[in-house]
Amino acid sequence: MTAPAAPSRQRSTGFAHRPGLDGLRGLAVAGVLAFHSGFGWAAGGYLGVSAFFTLSGFLITTLLLGEHRGTGRVDLRAFWIRRFRRLLPAALLGVLAATAYVLAFADQSGLDRFRGDALAAIGYVANWRFVLSELSYAELFTGDSPLQHYWSLAIEEQFYLVLPLLAVLLLRRRAGWVGLGVLAAVGIVVSVVVTLVVGGGDRAYYGTDTRMAELLIGVLLAVWHHRRDLGTALPDGVRSAAGAAALATMLGLWVVTEQSSGALHPWLLLGHAVLTSAIIVAVLAPTPVARALSLPPLTGLGRISYGVYVYHWPIFLWLSPTRTGLDGGGFDDVLLAGLRILVTLAVAIPSHRFVEQPIRHHGLPLRGRGRPAATVAAVAAVVALAIVPPALLDREDPIDFAAAEALQDDLLAGDAIPRTSTTTTTSSPLGGPTTEQPPTTAPGPAPRVALFGDSTALLFIPGLIDWAIETERMDFNGAGTVSGCGLGRGGERNFLERGPEPVPEGCDFTTAWREALTTADPEIAVVEIGLWDLTERRIEGDDEWRTIGDPVYDDYLRSEVRAATDHLLETAETVVWVLQPPPVRSTREPDDPTFDRLEQWNEMLVDELGDHPDVGFVDLADWLASTPDGTDSLRLRPDGTHFTTETSVEVAQWLGPAILEAARTTDVVDADDELAARP
User: Where are the domains of the chain?
Assistant: First the structure.
């Protein structure tokens, strides 16, 4: 049965269509596209989502108040049906696109995580899923969820469910619009207070309560517009000047406001909502701002902006620099962004024309020509694929953090450790024989060795265990690695997309390394650590965010390096620092500062400790660069950072002898000399 056509919006609400509002939508989604394209000049493009929030608050409230003024009531059932018709079809197809992406490219941990993401997206609670689900350290490196962007759709849908209920209750009274305005004002204050209490990070960014102020400012604007025609309430000159200034300021914020900004929650977001409101006021009259935002390219993009937003993220992930070959930076970045946007438009335009609009205006008929069967099939496919993949697929995770952690636990417990590899040859795909054939019996007692660091060190454990058992040249009986911990203690850090967070108390090396030092009583302590210290950091007692290269932060890091070394030397005779290789470039954005910061970190280690009589170095970065695979091999490090169980066995063929040589000579092991010495 075919549902009746939806009534004209202007006839039922009294609110005429304004092309400039479509243009504002188009501008907002363009900002998001530029931000996700990684352009440095769009560091604040994510604020386009905030513009959507405020515009949605204004439009939905205007529709509710207009319907009540025209009919004396608000039909909740009809309102919610219209919302679901408008939003659900593209949202479900977006989940289908994301499902196709993870089926093609995700490993097992990605599939397992996606099941929860998909169910949360379908249920419009994705924002709380990302707040409440504590990702393991391994999951930080499995890549972004293709449904990460559904957090904002969830907040809007929750708003669409609650606001009409409150509006109906309040509008039953005379001058109920006053109560609605007061409720919105109180809600804004509560939202700001909650944001100040929870601080920054994921909780503030994704929380419905912490982001509600942006929507409620739109509600307040709609109440004012309902009570007083803005055309007579404000002179044209004031609206024009305020709108132009607001638009210019908004675009300026989109250029400079990084997500790590300490002022983002709540003040910048609150100010951005006020700017959006000023632009809306200007668009409601024939001002220059209204004419600028009514240009066809912007209004056309605005009309399909919902589909563009829904489909773009899995498409952007699919069209990665590695898969497209556009990974050289510079002009490649522009070409890649253009390709991603063109493909997104190629999906969003037919989706709008053949799926979203027909269902929006005519519902979902069960009989008839064309569209229904395809739509129903798509819905069924989305639900099935969102739930089933982890049950059907069993993919081996190339980087097995759990297995390495289990080996570490066995070492600390003193249990017998079996070899992780059955390989008996000493040749390696990294480039020929890696060490001389070892004697069956070592000439003397093998030195006791313990390993310290973060997860990059953790993944050395399988290989070093194999090498130690095979050669009997090392008593590898202790590991003190702690995933997710850098060297620097205290303060806050800003890692990847997680936002600012306190450095965990368990990351204090004086306690985190205690068990390994006690159990192993090492003669040689090997340390491989550093990437967590290359993020933005706020040192205890310092209000500034700093990174390596800042003299204040450099002095702090040097003192921590010296303190960690001295702490290890209280037990060990020698400390060997591993100089880290850079990440695989194809897994990072071309302008990722990690590469320069890592080089500075390695230089700092040698500069600070190079003259220490009991400290040696092994230059894994230099050695890896000198091998046929090189530093950019995804075979060696599939996530760009960590070796696999198998490739750690390969690396250990060089790393084991290099550690012993560095401990003996306390000199930097030169990769070229090491390669030349191989038989």
Answer: 9-392, 401-421+431-676
- Residue 432 phi/psi, 5-degree rounding, is 80, -170
3-state secondary structure of 544: coil
How far is 400 from 638, CA to CA, in rounded Å? 11
Which residues make Cβ contacts (< 8 Å) with residue 295, sequence separation at least 6? 23
Residues 6+ away with beta carbon under 8 Å from 379: 92
pLDDT tens by residue, 395-412: 556 677 778 888 888 888
Cα pseudo-dihedral 604, 608, 613, 618, rounded to 10: -10
Provide the phi-psi class of 646: left if phi over 0, else alpha when psi is between -120 and 50, else beta: alpha
Whole-number Å distance between alpha carbons of 601 and 637: 21
Assigned superfamily of 401-421+431-676: SGNH hydrolase (3.40.50.1110)
Residue 206 token pair: 């994704």
Please tell me which residue, 280 or 132, carries the higher pLDDT value: 280
Alpha-carbon 115 to chain mean position: 18
Nearest to 659 by CA among 650, 668, 646: 668
CB atoms within 10 A of CB 11: 8
Q: Binning pLDDT at 50, 70 and 90, where does residue 385 land? A: low
Residues 434 and 679 sit within 8 Å (Cβ to Cβ) = no
Tokens matching residue 418 = 């079996």
Q: How many residues does the chain have?
A: 679
pLDDT tens digits, one per residue of 110-168 = 777 888 888 899 899 999 998 887 655 555 555 678 999 999 999 999 999 999 999 99
| DSSP β-bridge partners for residue 618 | 578, 669
Strand runs labelled E in 323-462? 427-428, 432-433, 448-453
